[in-house]
Amino acid sequence: MRIAAILALLPLPVIADTFVVQAPPVAATVYAQGALVSRNASLQLPVGQHTLELRDMDPSLSLDAMNIRLNGATITSRSWTARPDGPYRAPRTPEWMAAKAVLDTSTEALALLDDKITLALASAQAAQDQIDFLNGLTVPEDTATDVDMLRAIGQLIASDGTAARAAMRGAEVEVRKLQRERPDLEFAVAQAQAALDAVTPTNNAPATLALNVSVPQPVEATLDLSYITGGVSWAPTYAFDLVDETSLSIVRSAVISQFTNEDWTDIQLTLSTLEPFAQSEPSQLRPQLRRIEDPVTQKRELLRIQSDSPRAVAEPVIESPVMVQEAAATANFEGIGVAYTLPAPVTIRAQSEEFEIALDTLSMDATLSARAIPLFDDTAFRLASVTNTSTEILLPGRALLFVDGQLVGNTQVRVLPPNADADIFFGRIDGLRLTRTVLDRNEGDRGIITRSNEETEEVQIEVENLTNRSWDVTVRDVVPFSEQEDLVIDWSASPAPDIDAVDDQRGILEWQLSVPAGVTQSISINTKLTWPEGKVLR
Fold first, then answer.
1. How far apart are CA 88 and CA 101, in angstroms?
2. In the listed set 198, 230, 251, which residue is the last one of a domain according to the structure?
3. What is the pTM for the complete model shown?
4. pLDDT tens-digit readout, 464-477
C-alpha cells in the first residue's frame, strides 16, 4: 500500500505521438493575382509533446508566409518537408463516399450482367457439344441389320438433336438480349467514375508541414491555417445583350485560373478587387542635378564620344529628365475595394486553366442610335448609350456582344461605376451605307510635302438608309487645325456641325442627323489652307 501511494505521487509519463491531420482548404479569397487560402481542423490531443503532420500541402508554398493558430495548445516549432514521407491518401469526404458507393453499385451491376452472358454462352456451347456428339454417333456393324436398333438410334438423334438445337438457339437469343443491356450499364459505370474523379483530390506531389506542439492538458484543439499562394487569378467577363433596342442585359461571370498544386473542394470562394501583391508604397524621388556648360566644352565632349563610339552621331541629343507617372486605381467603391462572395461552395481542381463562375445579371435602359465615321468605314455602327443605374461597379473585362440573342462581336469593357454613362457599340448596320468623296483638291505640287502656299479641298459625305426604320446617326469627320499664325485654315460645312470639337479635340466635327428609311442625307465640307511663300506644309 505504501509503495502504491508513493507511485501515485510520481508524475505521469509524458505522452509523445504523431498525429496526421486532415485539414483541406475550406475558403479562398482570390485577387487579380494570387489568393489567400484558409484551412482548419479539430482534433483531440492528449497531454504531452506531439507532432502534427499535414501531408497534403502545396510544395511551392513558403513557410514564412503561413499564419498558423492552434487553440488549446502551443506550437513550439514548425518545419517543412517538400517531399511526402509516406503514401498520400485523399480525404474520404461524405461526397467522396457517396460517389464511391454509386460506382461500386454500377460496377457490380455490370459484372452480374457479364456473368449472365457468360452462363448463356456456356449453355449454347454445351448444346453445340451435344449436337456434335450426336452427329458423331456410328452404327456398329453387327447391328446394321437390326431395324429396331436403327430406329432407336434415329429417334435418339432426332429428339436429342432437336432439343439441343433449341437450347442453343435459346441461349443465343438470351445472349443477344443481355448484350443490348450492356452499353447502358457501361455508360452508368463511366458516369459514376467521372463523378468520383470530380470529388477526389489529386495527389500533386504533396509536401508535409510538421508542427511540434505542447499540450498541458487533454483538449479538443482547433487548428486554423492561412497562407498566400500564387498561380491564381481572376477576371470578370460579360455577355451584353441589347434587347428590343431599349434594354441592355448584362450577364456577369468570373473566369478563375488555378495553377496551384492543391484541389479546392467545396470551398467558400470570395473574389476581391484588391491587389495585395501590387506596389504598396509610393515610389522614391531622386534629386535632379542640372548644370550648364560652355558650348565649346559640350562640343568637345560630343566629339570625344563620337570618336570613341563605333557609330557616328548625326547631331547632339539632349535628353529630358525622365518622369514616371503611376496609374491610380479607379475601381475603389465605398471602401478600399470590392469583394464578391459566392453564395454556395464551389470546387476548383488543381491546374485548372480556366474555370468560369456565373455571378448575376443586371439590366439597364439603353438608347439606341448609330455612329458613322465615313473617312474609314463604309457602314455605320449600332450604338447603345447606357447609364449604370445599379449599385454595382462594372470592372474592366472582356465582353461578348449580342443583339436580341444573336452574337455580333466582342469588346473590352472599361470600368463603369454607379451612375456613370457609357457608349457601347454592337456591330455594323449594313443598311446604313456611307460614302465620302473628294470632289476637288488643289495641292500645288502634289506629294507628301507640298511646295505651294495654298491647299483647298471639297468633300461630300452621304449617309444612305436602306433599312426599314428611321435612324438617329451621329456623323463624325475631321478638318485640319493650326497653332501657327502664318498657317491660316478656313473651313465651312453644310449643314453646320452640331459640335466642332468633339471631346475637346480640335478639328473633330460631329453632325447629329435623323435619317428616315429610304432617304439619303448629304454633308459637304470645304477647307482652305494658306501660308507664306517659301514655307512648306507638313
1. 21
2. 198
3. 0.60
4. 999 999 999 999 99
